[in-house]
Structure formats: structure tokens, C-alpha cells
């Protein structure tokens, strides 16, 4: 019996596959390689290149493989981009999930764990955020993930398809040995951008606003190490296998760091100056997002181990400094 990982060649998906294989699961990967990387596909996994919206293709995978459970990472995930091309986001994320749920139902696969996001909450009423708080997404991306959660809810009621939605906060870091990591093109996330400045690939870090109602005026986020994050997926699969009901969990480190604090840690870790400049706010950025991951701890027994930002940025630095061009780096081929 295998675990099907959709989006297993992407940043978080490839780390999840790595952990599943370390834990002796048989893994089947589906990825269309649009944002994923062929070099990130684990050599011990069975790989099918294709799009989850292609029902005939997906049925073929379920026919060939004995799928026990699904972990679904295959989605578009940039907040800003989702506001420019909302229909693409709805098509890939919502319609893609529709096809997946149809095929799961057809083949009697009843367990799914999938990536949701803190962006489902929108501007928080208060922090730390708990799962029962109001969800009013302010982006197509956040809303597409909320729609995915709701689709699964209705499938649970009708067909008994049980799901765990994992609402990620800010994911960063890389596998400790630096062999896999984050490689987006274009890059928009804070930690890789800071490290690209450290590598001399960008002139400076543009800090989007220092007039927020926070101590140093820059936005506060809750950064969680990708290696910790993926462990929650495996705990969630086991939870479903042991009869757990459908559920939603926040995944974060429960502590907030400002953009300026992250920059300071990166300067310390890399030993580089990393110039910066304060520029205008980026539209749609809430000032503070901090998770309460109490529920994940209580129900799944999940607790992040790497909550020191030096660990997270240090791991990301090992990846970026050895793969300055990401997976396109000649060393990788
Ligand atoms: N930032 C900068 N300069 C940059 C990049 C980012 O100042 O060049 C700031 C942002 O304004 C923000 C913080 O750094 O305050 C973190 O920004 P990221 O783009 O790294 O992450 P976001 O918090 O915007 O987004 C993350 C995930 C999304 C998810 C969202 C939930 O990447 O997928 O959290 O709110 F939807």
C-alpha cells in the first residue's frame, strides 16, 4: 500500500516525501513539474508526471497503484499572483481538488491530508490564531484553500472521506543536509530573498513597510521549519488511519518574528552585511500572524523542534549557499 503525494516535487512536498521514505512508507508522486523540480523527485518514489486536473491520467495512477492515503500539496500558492490571475488559481486549486476527490471516491480511497494556509483567516481579530476563529480570506489564494476545506467537508458527510487540513503559517528552512530546499521562480518569500541578497544575487532586501503597529514597525510572522512541518502530515495520516475524525490544525511555531528581526538573524548566521531599504507596504499584508498550534499538539502530538530562527535560517542557508541557482545549479545535474 502506498501514500500518494500530489505535488511531491515541490518545496514542501519533496520534504514530505523524504520523511515518508525515511519512515518506510511506499510513496507514489504525481507532479506536473510546473513549479516542482524533476531533481527534487526522490529516487525511491514512483513518479508520474502529470496534472491532477487530467482525470484520465489520475484514474490511471489510482488503477496502477494501491493507494492507501493521499497527501495533497499540488496547488498554486502565491497570494499576490492569485489576485492577478484568480481564475487560474480557482482552476488549479479548486477544480483540481474536485477531480482528485472524484477519483478518490471512485477508487474507495478515504483519507486525505492537505496543505491549507493561515491566509484562510484574513486579517486576524486577535493573535495567536486558533482554528475556530473567523475565516475571511483577503486573497483568491486564501479563499481557494478555504473552498478546498469545504469541499472535503461535504465529501466527508456524503461519502465518509476523512480529511485533515493543515493551515500553515510561514514555512522556511530546508532538509538539514542541504540536499533539497526552496526554489521558486520568481521568488517572493522573505527568507530566500534575504539569502539571495547575502549571496549577492540581489542588491538589497526591500522591507515592505515599517509603519505597522508592531514594536519595530515591520510585519510579524510565525516561521515554522519545513522539517517540523512535514512531520505533522505523517502524524495526521496516522491519526486518520487510527479512526480520527476530519479535522483542521494550525501549524506554526507559536512565536512571532518581525521582518527586521529575521534580517538580523540572517546577518548573524551568514556573516554577511545584507543591505536593506524600507519601501512601501505590500498590499494585503496583515501586520501580525501568529499561530496557536495547541490543537495540533493536543490531538496529533505534534510539536515543532526547530523554533530557534538560527536553526531555520541556518538550514535555508546551507541549501541556498550550496545551490545558488536552486535546482538549475550545474552540481545538481
Ligand atoms: N517581506 C518583505 N520583503 C520581501 C518579502 C517579504 O518585507 O522582499 C515581508 C512581507 O511583507 C511579510 C513578511 O516579509 O511581512 C513575510 O512575507 P512572505 O512573502 O515570506 O510570506 P507571507 O506572510 O506573505 O505569506 C505566507 C505564505 C503564503 C501564505 C501566507 C499566509 O508564503 O503562502 O503566509 O498569510 F498564504
UniProtKB/TrEMBL annotation:
Keyword Isomerase assigned: yes
EC category name: isomerase
Cofactor(s) this protein requires: NAD(+)
Residue ranges occupied by any NAD-dependent epimerase/dehydratase domain in the UniProt entry: 3-252
UniProt pathway annotation: Carbohydrate metabolism; galactose metabolism
Entry keyword annotation includes Isomerase: yes
Keywords on record: Carbohydrate metabolism, Galactose metabolism, Isomerase, NAD
GO MF term list: UDP-glucose 4-epimerase activity
One GO BP annotation of this record: galactose catabolic process via UDP-galactose, Leloir pathway
Enzyme Commission code: 5.1.3.2
Chemical reaction(s) catalysed: UDP-alpha-D-glucose = UDP-alpha-D-galactose
PANTHER family listed in its UniProt record: UDP-ARABINOSE 4-EPIMERASE 1, UDP-GLUCOSE 4-EPIMERASE
Family: Belongs to the NAD(P)-dependent epimerase/dehydratase family.
Oligomer status and interactors: Homodimer.
UniProt-recorded name of the protein: UDP-glucose 4-epimerase
Amino acid at each position: 500500500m502506498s501514500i500518494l503525494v500530489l505535488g511531491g516535487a515541490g518545496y514542501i512536498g519533496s520534504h514530505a516525501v523524504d520523511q515518508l521514505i525515511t519512515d518506510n512508507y511506499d510513496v507514489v508522486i504525481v507532479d506536473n513539474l510546473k513549479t516542482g523540480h524533476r531533481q527534487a523527485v526522490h529516487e525511491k518514489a514512483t513518479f508520474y508526471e502529470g496534472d491532477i486536473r487530467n482525470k484520465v491520467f489520475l484514474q490511471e495512477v489510482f488503477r496502477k497503484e494501491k493507494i492507501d492515503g493521499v497527501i495533497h500539496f499540488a496547488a498554486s500558492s502565491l497570494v499576490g499572483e492569485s489576485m492577478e490571475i484568480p481564475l487560474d488559481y480557482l482552476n488549479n486549486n479548486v477544480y483540481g481538488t474536485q477531480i482528485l476527490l472524484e477519483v478518490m471516491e471512485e477508487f474507495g480511497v478515504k483519507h486525505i491530508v492537505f496543505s491549507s494556509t493561515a491566509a484562510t483567516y484574513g486579517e486576524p481579530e486577535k493573535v495567536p490564531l486558533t482554528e475556530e476563529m473567523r475565516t475571511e480570506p483577503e486573497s483568491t489564494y486564501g479563499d481557494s484553500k478555504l473552498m478546498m476545506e469545504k469541499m472535503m467537508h461535504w465529501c466527508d458527510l456524503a461519502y465518509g472521506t476523512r480529511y485533515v487540513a493543515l493551515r500553515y503559517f510561514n514555512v522556511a528552512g530546508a532538509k538539514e543536509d542541504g540536499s533539497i530546499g526552496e526554489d521558486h521562480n520568481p521568488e517572493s518569500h522573505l527568507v530566500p530573498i534575504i539569502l539571495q541578497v547575502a549571496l549577492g544575487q540581489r542588491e538589497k532586501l526591500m522591507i515592505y513597510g515599517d509603519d505597522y503597529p508592531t514594536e519595530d514597525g515591520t510585519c510579524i510572522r510565525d516561521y515554522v521549519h519545513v522539517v517540523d512541518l512535514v512531520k505533522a502530515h505523517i502524524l495526521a495520516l496516522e491519526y486518520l488511519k487510527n479512526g480520527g475524525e476530519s479535522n483542521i490544525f494550525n501549524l506554526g511555531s507559536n512565536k512571532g518574528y518581525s521582518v527586521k528581526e529575521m534580517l538580523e538573524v540572517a546577518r548573524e548566521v551568514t556573516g554577511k552585511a545584507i543591505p536593506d531599504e524600507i519601501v512601501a507596504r505590500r498590499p494585503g499584508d496583515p501586520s501580525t500572524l501568529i499561530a496557536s498550534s495547541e490543537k495540533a499538539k493536543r490531538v496529533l502530538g505534534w510539536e515543532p523542534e526547530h523554533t530557534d530562527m538560527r536553526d531555520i535560517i541556518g538550514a535555508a542557508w546551507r541549501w541556498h549557499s550550496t545551490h545558488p541557482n536552486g535546482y538549475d545549479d550545474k552540481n545538481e545535474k
